[in-house]
Amino acid sequence: PLVKPRSEDPNHPKVVTKEVAVAPRYEKRYGNPQITELYSLELGNSDEDTESNDFLNAFDPASGNEIISAGGKIEQFVVSPTTNLMYLNVKSNSTQALMKIDVMKEVTTLPKSGGEMINQIATSDRFGTLYIDSQVGNPHQVIALEGTKRKIVSDNVHDRILGIRKGKVYIGQVENDQLVKIKTTPDLVEMTDNPPLKTEWVGSIPFNKDVRWLIGAKDQVIIYDLKTAYIVTAGNLKEVKLQGDENYVSVDGAELIRLTKQVTTTLVELQPLKP
Question: What pTM value is reported for the model?
Answer without folding.
Answer: 0.76
